[in-house]
Amino acid sequence: MTIRTAAPEDTKAPPALLLMAGIVLVAANLRAALTGVGPLLPEIERSTGLSGIWSGLLGALPLLTFAATSPFVGRTAHRFGSARVLGNSLLILATGLLVRSLPGVFFLFAGTFVVAAAIAYGNVLLPAVIKSSVPESRIGQVTAGYVTAMGLVAALSSGISVPMAAYLPGAWRTALGCWIVLAALAFVVWLPQYRRGRRTESAAPAAREPIPWRSGLAWQVSVFMGLQSLAFYTIIAWLPSILHDRGVGAASAGWQLFLFQIAGLVSSIVLPFLTRRWRDQRIIAATASLLAALGFALLILAPGLAVVSCVLIGLGGGACLVLALSFQSQRAANPAQAAALAAMAQSVGYLVAAIGPLLLGALHDGTAGWRIPLLLLVALALVQAAVGSRAGRDTRLSTRVDPI
Fold first, then answer.
1. What is the dihedral of CA 384, 389, 392, 394, to 10 degrees?
2. Residue 211 Cα to chain centre, angstroms
3. CATH node for 14-391
4. What is the 3-state secondary structure (H, E, C) of 22-35?
5. Does 325 score more than 50 pLDDT?
6. Residue 382 pLDDT
7. DSSP states of 194-220 as a string?
8. Which residues pair with 3 in a beta bridge?
9. Longest CA pairwise span in the chain (Å)
């Protein structure tokens, strides 16, 4: 894993507000293109003839792409510069969104692959950017800020996708393709960093840091990342279908998915204030995971209380997302190590997460119901609580192998 860092002579940093605006807008593009798919899935299935397994594969494809792409991000950033790579990824994202909106199942899957590959670069590079530009004491707050932007736009995408498909020409294809506008806006705001990167990063010395495959702490961070991502993307892919099978209309199911994400936003905003002085985050990681487990259990035991379940899962999941991303910066000793840890956490993590949508689709088809899939999510949330109690330790990666 290699990544370029600024040379000492290039001391003049870009204006902080402009840099933060760019980070926020890049973050806003990291989920919106994916979270609008779930509410539209029943309509996509009707118009394309996709089975439950193929729909699960559509939900798993972005995560498999994240897992396959993440290890190569550092190498690409080292060669071309992280600012330029981020800018180019926004252009590739816009291209993928256009391809995905074209008629035909092939373009649906091909566009989804391109969109996910572009998003993977932002996922990996943002923790390294934060590590290199933000004081250690503020990493949690800044991470929460970009998670808030990411989650807010993602929630909006879930809520408006069905109404947009109903009123726009092109139906669901147009609803999924309209996020090109957000990608273009982010590129325009990021352009000053892109241009600065061309001048400064070509002369910068390379800091080399291998991916920490032999570190127990890195594996704990990676598995925690994977389990919380599995829960999130499974809910994004299947919650509207779960509710739809219980007689809830498509638009109403979309808004309940919106509520789930709003609850996640609330916890991601509040969490940094609660943990500002807590360098050890074991208790909060375990507690947030148990809260999500309770929400999944409630979906089984009292499906009529789905709104409460959405809130509980959202509160727990939002906190776990902030923690998972913060761990990738806080458990690293330097920006290059943060990039290496982020690459590992997101490669392993999204590979774990990819199992969720596909497995739940297969379990639903095989059992003709949602009870077994939801029981599995409860069990995995309990495992996540145990892993989080280790990943949340106040410690750093080192050059030696960290004990499990």
1. -160
2. 20
3. 1.20.1250.20
4. HHHHHHHCCCHHHH
5. yes
6. 96
7. HHHHHHHGGGSPEEE----TT-HHHHH
8. 207
9. 64
189, two tokens: 């705001």
In the chain, where the domains are located: 14-391
Q: What is the mean predicted confidence (pLDDT) over 269-278?
A: 73
What residues contact residue 41 under an 8 Å CB cut-off, 6+ apart? Answer: 55, 58, 59, 237, 240, 241
Residues contacting residue 159 through CB under 8 Å, at least 6 positions apart: 254, 255, 257, 258
Residue 111 and residue 101 in contact, taking contact as beta carbons nearer than 8 Å? yes
Q: What is the pLDDT of residues 87-96, one digit of tens each?
A: 899 999 999 9
Which residue is associated with the tokens 């279908």?
241
- The Cα 264–Cα 190 span in angstroms is 27
Q: What are phi and psi of 2, to 5 degrees?
A: -135, 145
Residue 206 φ/ψ, nearest 5 degrees? -90, 130
Backbone angles phi, psi at 4, to 5 degrees: -85, 145
pTM listed for this prediction: 0.74
